[in-house]
Amino acid sequence: MVEDGGEEEAEGESGEMPAATAAPALQRCNGFLPGKEAAGGGRAAPAGGEEQPAAPAAPAAPIAPAAPAAPAAPEAEAMLPTGGGRVETRLSRRRIVVLAVFSCYSLVNAFQWIQYSILSNVFAVFYGVSFTQIDWLSVVYMVAYVPLILPATWLLDARGLRLTALLGSGLNALGAWLKCGSLAPQRYPLTLAAQTVCAVAQVFILGLPSRIASVWFGPTEVSTACAVAVLGNQLGTAIGFLLPPVLVPNTPNDIDLMAHNISIMFYGTAIVSTLLFFLTGVVFEEKPKYPPSHSQAVLLTKPPEDYSYKQSIINLFKNTPFVLLLISYGIMTGTFYSVSTLLNQMIVTHYEGEEVNAGRIGLTLVVAGMVGSIICGLWLDYTKTYKQTTLIVYILSFIGLLVFTFTLDLGYLIVVFVTGGVLGFFMTGYLPLGFEFAVEITYPESEGTSSGLLNASAQIFGILFTLVQGKLTTDYSPRAGNLFLCAWIFVGIILTALIKSDLRRHSVNSGIMNLDVKAVSGDSVI
């Protein structure tokens, strides 16, 4: 059907969720303070405050408790809409366009992150600075994220998805245009400032994949949607590995030609990012008219004025499985950031003059990871085996990094291409797994908050790993730096094995309502 306002709805499945009557209050659910739960019942209102139409066709059968002998926990019952109404769920056609536009401007942001590092030797000559100063053009992305993530996730929860998306895409375009003013050897401070603006834009981008997937996509496609959203960022990194070495060849004896080539890359990026900013303003809406899943319908029953961001943060840090995932995700993703940043230095150490092939190896690493991301997303939607899949991918990433480390200096680039592809398939494929696993074990907490904290952990570990691995690579060898990362990934395997798999969102969507779905889990991790 076509909604009032022009949006087309009712693609694919639709359904209804029966309401529970006289539901007890839910304590600390989704960051809501005790005693502030909705009173008087009533069903969830769609975006814009419109009254939902009565559900067409025959009503769905009521959800039966999994174990008749055991009554549903009060917390679980409180998660159902109250007042005897029914909540209709539908899928919006607009969700595909929203996902596509987000993936594209996330792609450009990732491209701007890696475009300096993959040409570290070129930019070091152009700006007349050291390799360490060029590395900071990548590290600034990680440094900016850590202090800004809490304000950014608060903004996402308090002001919504549309404003956050506009800030991310708008700052991305602004940073790209500022870079166009740094096309002279004396302007390293300006290009650093421009990169810092892009780094701030990233804060409003990295936390959105799981939120977009949950708000716009149904339960049978949410993990795949999250993987596609993450894939956009990975594709940007892949293009950032491939395109800059082609656009900006190393011409140390002709700085004017080098400046001309860099200008083509900078102006092209600025034009594309500006177009995507305008598309974001046209396409993005706060949420679809109807919730796409029962778990989203449940969250709509809570009035926004009762939400406490501080309480949500406290709940997450009291959730032991989430804290374990927070550390293990940071280790894996920080390792990926470090390897991506230092790949050019590692390759040219053993294969002098192979800057273009260094970019191609980076492309191979990320493209393989994109395939891994999609496969993992489809697998999770089909099996819901979050912990098992996460642990297996973690172990295979460890093995992949070991093989990459000990084959890097054999003198055969084809071997590095193969081992880099295997490493990327598992390491980059892990990224959406961590997002979706976090949403499952922290439901009904905000997806933006949990994914924002995961990314903050990744940035912190990324900064530390990049600086330490860079020092080890410069002073000793790339092998020393990679072995340092291997040791940390082994620690991550142990932490992942200790995570208790409590799939709360899946339980709500499946109608298993006799589970304890409080935001704070027990201390047990096994």
From TrEMBL:
Keywords: Cell membrane, Erythrocyte maturation, Glycoprotein, Membrane, Phosphoprotein, Receptor, Transmembrane, Transmembrane helix, Transport
Compartments, as annotated in UniProt: Cell membrane
PROSITE patterns associated with the record: MFS
GO molecular function, one term: heme transmembrane transporter activity
Region (Disordered): 1-66
Top-rank taxon, per record: Eukaryota
Pfam families cross-referenced by the UniProt entry: MFS_1
Protein name, entry field: Choline/ethanolamine transporter FLVCR1
